[in-house]
Amino acid sequence: MIVVEDLHKHFGGFHAVDGASLTIETGSITALIGPNGAGKTTLFNVIAGVLPPTSGRVVMDGEDITGLPPHVLFSKGLLRTFQIAHEFHSMTCRENLMMVPPGQTGETLWNTWFGRKRIADEERALRAKADEVLEFLTVEHLADHPAGQISGGQKKLLELGRTMMVDAKIVFLDEVGAGVNRTLLNTIGDAIIRLNRERGYTFCVIEHDMDFIGRLCDPVIVMAEGHVLAKGTIDEIKANEAVIEAYLGTGLKNKDKLEGAGA
């Protein structure tokens, strides 16, 4: 689905992404891990149109999408979440979801005057879909809660719910487990697996928790110093000495520590 070819992103003399090439297969839950400063989030930002590349190419389903802005990629089904959840604080969780679909009838002044019935019908349908999403994520009890007052883990679930309000093809999740307790992280993992298996979502996940990665992701791609270092199953990655050196700099004798290392 996504092919990244020799991608570079430079900030002055600093090469945050330095010739990265990788493939994210349709229908996969792919992990992207690596030491802090490896270039993972910068790579996400370039793929998702937040940052323009210095050079290189990004292809989605055979179409060159290099440098396209986020709103155009959104319309093509490429979505991303962020390390820190972004929500409309004073709006309810349901309203946050209802805001997502673009081109709603009530967005134009003309329709607010002459298309009131159509607006009402559309809002009823959006409300029903939002409630379905909240139920899918097992947080229907939060429907009428202000989104700014729910926990960090619940906000991550709400962000995942936003991707369900449109026809997402691939979702890039940036540290979905950051600051989330184990119970909620398991709930998020369950939702990702269900979306992958039941609705055909493709995911690419940056995450620190290796147990979470091991449960969800195959393959695992490792970045270091801006380029791809290795790709394989979680067991192959844990046994890869080059990966262990990149994380710990101590060789295979400490390879068991990789399970607790930051990604």
TL;DR of this structure?
With 263 residues, the protein is α/β, with parallel strands linked by helices. 37% of the residues lie in helices and 22% in strands. Keywords: ATP-binding, Nucleotide-binding, Transport.
How would you describe the overall organization of this protein?
This protein is of the alpha/beta class. The chain has helices at 40-47, 70-75, 93-98, 109-114, 116-136, 152-163, 182-199, 210-216, 234-238, 241-248; strands at residues 2-11, 14-24, 29-33, 55-60, 63-64, 78-80, 170-174, 202-206, 220-224, 227-232. A 6-stranded mixed beta sheet has the order 6-7-8-3-9-10, with helices on both faces. The protein has a 4-stranded antiparallel beta sheet with strand order 2-1-4-5, with helices on one face. A hairpin with a 2-residue loop joins strand 1 and strand 2. The model is unreliable at 250-255 (pLDDT under 50). The protein has 2 domains: 2-87 and 163-261, Rossmann fold (3-Layer(aba) Sandwich), CATH 3.40.50.300; 89-147, no CATH class. The protein is built from 10 helices and 10 strands.
